[in-house]
């Protein structure tokens, strides 16, 4: 079994619903550009260092850059140069937090990417070469800033996954491909997880795959006994059993129950023997991740 890292929970939902911040475009990366924003982020990440200490496990600190790509950045006033700067600064910020902590079992900083589109719904097939060109600048910035790996979260179809993996290979950074699934355990475009992994592995195999932004019950509906399960290296589940469409319409946070979420997730931990990253996604905070790791906060 590989070494398993603690990672964080639902950054954006935590910042909005628990810390009272306004995040236009659901983007956390602009917080890096102010002293006040960095202090909020520091407080957020320190909660997960505490979970890692209690669990006696290493921590993977992942950058707040899920929306730090050209389409979303443009809407927030960030051009290519500004995005390059903020992606690099995000890596440096997390390295500083880890170095200041001093008493961790181990740590790594990873760079986070998100989909070009919505992240909850498929906009149709994506041309892999177009996706590779689109995501290459962010991957290069994260890699050159010192991120040990990159992870793209909440992909909805295979074309963009292939493109991200190709771009990561070009940059020379290990990459994890994160797919999300609907309540039936399939990608939003209807592709079974096993099929999605086979297609991407055939075209441009990443270091491993990750499933995020779905409740464990939804993920479990897509399981079978295939060897593809050995390729799942990360799990970041939602707190809520609601569908993506229901969550998108919510004006309050459904944070579920941390202990129940951990129990619901256990069959997935049993199914994915190569899991090396365990954290949460929408609606989760440090309480949920602590419960996943069998410790309290």
TrEMBL record:
<keyword id="KW-0808">Transferase</keyword>
<keyword id="KW-0862">Zinc</keyword>
<feature type="domain" description="Hcy-binding">
    <location>
        <begin position="1"/>
        <end position="296"/>
    </location>
</feature>
<feature type="binding site">
    <location>
        <position position="281"/>
    </location>
    <ligand>
        <name>Zn(2+)</name>
    </ligand>
</feature>
<dbReference type="InterPro" id="IPR036589">
    <property type="entry name" value="HCY_dom_sf"/>
</dbReference>
<feature type="binding site">
    <location>
        <position position="213"/>
    </location>
    <ligand>
        <name>Zn(2+)</name>
    </ligand>
</feature>
<dbReference type="InterPro" id="IPR003726">
    <property type="entry name" value="HCY_dom"/>
</dbReference>
<feature type="binding site">
    <location>
        <position position="282"/>
    </location>
    <ligand>
        <name>Zn(2+)</name>
    </ligand>
</feature>
<keyword id="KW-0489">Methyltransferase</keyword>
<protein>
    <submittedName>
        <fullName>Homocysteine S-methyltransferase family protein</fullName>
    </submittedName>
</protein>
<dbReference type="Pfam" id="PF02574">
    <property type="entry name" value="S-methyl_trans"/>
</dbReference>
<keyword id="KW-0479">Metal-binding</keyword>
